[in-house]
Design goal:
By secondary structure, this protein is α/β, with parallel strands linked by helices. The chain folds into 2 domains: about 5-20 and about 270-365, Aspartate Aminotransferase, domain 1; about 45-270, Aspartate Aminotransferase, domain 2 (3-Layer(aba) Sandwich). It contains 12 helices and 15 strands. The strands form 4 sheets. Strands 2-10-9-8-7-3-4 form a 7-stranded mixed beta sheet, sandwiched between helices. A 4-stranded antiparallel beta sheet has the order 11-12-15-14, covered by helices on one side. Strands 1-13 form a two-stranded parallel ribbon. The longest helix has 25 residues, at about 270-295. The radius of gyration is 20 Å and the shape is globular. The two termini are about 25 Å apart.
């Protein structure tokens, strides 16, 4: 197989199709390429500086207003190296000291270690799929967890790994429960720009600015995770005061290239993003057709956002399925059990790849049935 960049393609033998970690195979937006080349040409490899971090805050605010109708003062945008670290800092400093954190598995598995690194315990409130295959939050369970002493919930929306884009009423209900118990919602909204037509991303902080802390980045939508730049948006005055005292610029941990690339993405990357979304929309349909034809025992509901498919392979009795696919089909996917209760028997499949590889991947899996 032709050598490719990134962790996804350089963690296994060369004959393995990479469909696990969340990296896309679509290159870079021209605006980002230009910004990074220009930075190299002027030897802009020093420490981050005000013009660079202010540009991200300003361009991101304009992007969010146009994309989601969410208007944010750029002065409320703070910088962190990545979303998981932003969540950890928010949990540590902006939620009730020592309080447990609610997670709604199946959920992005680094959250488990993030909570531990924040010095907290987690309360797992398992989610379940409805009859239509769409996963739903257990609102009563979340309410009970807050009543039992939880101080916050990490709300993953769009929801990795199940591909949901939560509706306005779903987001509103979670926020209302947190408010009722005096708790906080720490919202991971990194996949928000990757919401498919027919669905609308609902910014939780737009419903309750005082209750919600938003953590996001350009890194998933524009494929920039190695450049280390994410944003924490604080819409609560007290949060701004606390954060500013704890995190001065030399403690942010962001990279200059990450800031420059993020600003270029938010400012000039929309047309590239729309093209990618169109490609992903076609690929999620292709994947569904291939699974229905070649792996009819697999259960798959088209994702409403993200380029990650959540596929239930429990009918085939592979235990665990991800390990079986790697060994017998030479396909690397993310093991469902990693994402917590509800993930058993599932795999998370990254379909942001060439069409030929997408077909070959499903054919390889079907061949071992």
């Amino acid at each position: 197989m032709t050598p490719r960049p990134g962790l996804k393609w350089n963690s296994f033998e060369s004959d393995v199709i990479g469909a696990w970690v969340a990296e896309m195979d679509f290159g870079l937006a021209p605006a980002i390429t230009e910004a990074l080349h220009a930075a190299v040409d002027r030897a802009d490899t020093g420490y981050p500086y005000p013009a660079a971090w202010n540009a991200v805050a300003e361009t991101a605010s304009v992007f969010w207003a146009g994309r989601f109708g969410w208007r944010v003062d750029p002065g409320r945008v703070f910088h962190v190296p990545d979303v998981v670290e932003g969540l950890r800092r928010a949990v540590m400093h902006l939620t009730a000291p020592g309080s447990p954190v609610i997670l709604h598995p199946p959920i992005y598995h680094p959250f488990f270690t993030m909570v531990a690194a924040a010095g907290r315990e987690h309360i797992l409130v398992r989610s379940y799929p409805g009859e239509d295959g769409r996963w739903c939050l257990d609102l009563d369970g979340i309410d009970r967890a807050f009543a039992a002493g939880a101080g916050s919930i990490v709300l993953c929306n769009p929801w990795n790994p199940v591909g949901r884009s939560l509706t306005a009423s779903e987001v509103s209900d979670v926020v209302a429960v947190a408010e009722r118990h005096g708790g906080r919602v720490v919202a991971d909204e990194i996949h928000a720009p990757l919401t498919f037509p027919g669905h609308s991303h609902v910014v939780a902080a737009g419903l309750s600015p005082a209750t919600v802390v938003t953590v996001t980045a350009a890194t998933k939508a524009w494929n920039l995770p190695g450049l280390k730049a994410a944003q924490v948006v604080l819409t609560n005055d007290h949060d701004v005061d606390v954060w500013s005292r704890h995190f001065v610029p030399h403690m942010w941990g962001v990279g200059t290239f990450g800031l420059l690339a993020s600003a270029a993405a938010y400012r000039d990357g929309t047309s590239w993003l729309e093209d990618v979304l169109a490609r992903l929309e076609a690929k999620r349909a292709t994947l569904g057709s291939l699974l229905a034809e070649l792996l009819p025992g697999g259960r798959y509901t088209r994702p409403e956002a993200t380029y990650l498919a959540w596929v239930d392979l429990s009918a085939y009795g592979w235990d665990p399925p991800g390990a079986v696919l790697l060994e017998r089909a030479r396909v690397a996917v993310s093991e469902g059990a990693l994402f917590g209760p509800g993930g058993e028997g599932h795999v998370r499949v990254n379909f942001a790849m060439d069409d030929g590889l997408l077909v070959e991947m499903v054919e390889r899996i079907a061949a071992i049935v």
